[in-house]
Amino acid sequence: MKRIVLFVVTNLAVMLVLSATLRILGVDRIITANGLNFNALLIFSVVVGFTGAIISLLMSKPMAKWSTGAQVLDPNAPRNQREAWLVDTVHQLADRAGIGRPEVAIYEGAPNAFATGAFKNDSLVAVSTGLLESMSEEEVAAVLAHEVAHIANGDMVTLTLIQGVVNTFVVFLARVVGYFIDRVVFKNERGIGPGYFITVLVCEIIFGVLASIIVAWFSRQREYRADAGSAHLMGAREPMIRALARLGGLEPGELPKSFEASGITGKGGLAAMFASHPPIPARIAALQNARVI
């Protein structure tokens, strides 16, 4: 969850900074000099929207290492048997998936794992000490297969494209609404006034939050695909089912407070709309009904 949140937040921050910079440079005024130029606005929106998403993607691996304190393992000199097993398992799974061997890392924390990186052949798979201590080797291997499946599916790149598209709509619609408010509400007939800039800023924040719901929905779908990918790489669905049951069974129906906010428990209402992971029972049911090839 932290990886996805950092990606979205960084992307939105870059988008807002780019938008503000171009506004200061007078690009907004050029677009609205003689009425709203929709073609110029669309080009502007695409540039700002996708630039933020692409920069976030390129920064995803160093950001993940920094935010979790993950220590990358040396594949040629593992310090103990556990590290050697981790590296060997991830490399075997990567070979089966037909991707380059990722960096493998361990970080201190509650049971969790993640994969990230801009390219399939230059990625990172990290696992927490909490997960290593609470699961069997087979269950850990299933989780690692889930993360390798994310890389093989190109999930980070696809997420970037979706984020870029929704960013484009955010930038575009914010300025259309801003122009309308400036003209109709503030009765400004020359250029653009304060009403435009204030409305654009507020709309970018509001539309950005709404766009996050779309990104979260996609993230939940890719978790189902990665679960199925784990079953494929492991040759059976049972290891991933047991790993999910272990996560969801730390207490009946609940996860520890330390990562309850990830939404993996599938709470209802607004929390479910912004959750990056589906409820564990839904993921287990999907795996049980899936056909493993």
UniProtKB/TrEMBL annotation:
Organism domain of life: Bacteria
Pfam families per the UniProt record, alphabetical: Peptidase_M48
Gene3D superfamilies: Metalloproteases ('zincins'), catalytic domain
Entry annotation: catalytic residues: 147
Its EC number(s): 3.4.24.-
GO molecular function: metalloendopeptidase activity; zinc ion binding
Transmembrane segments: 35-58, 159-181, 196-218
CDD domains: M48B_HtpX_like
Residue intervals of the Peptidase M48 domain: 81-289
GO biological process, alphabetically ordered: proteolysis
Cofactor(s) the protein needs: Zn(2+)
Principal place of residence: membrane
Cofactor note: Binds 1 zinc ion per subunit.
Record: residues binding Zn(2+): 146, 150, 223
InterPro entries according to UniProt: HtpX_protease (IPR050083), Pept_M48_protease_HtpX (IPR022919), Peptidase_M48 (IPR001915)
Membrane topology value: Multi-pass membrane protein
Localisation: Cell membrane
Class of this enzyme: hydrolase
Any Gene Ontology CC annotation: plasma membrane
Keywords recorded for this protein, A-Z: Cell membrane, Hydrolase, Membrane, Metal-binding, Metalloprotease, Protease, Stress response, Transmembrane, Transmembrane helix, Zinc
Membership in a protein family: Belongs to the peptidase M48B family.
Descriptive protein name: Protease HtpX homolog
Origin species: Achromobacter arsenitoxydans SY8
Gene: htpX
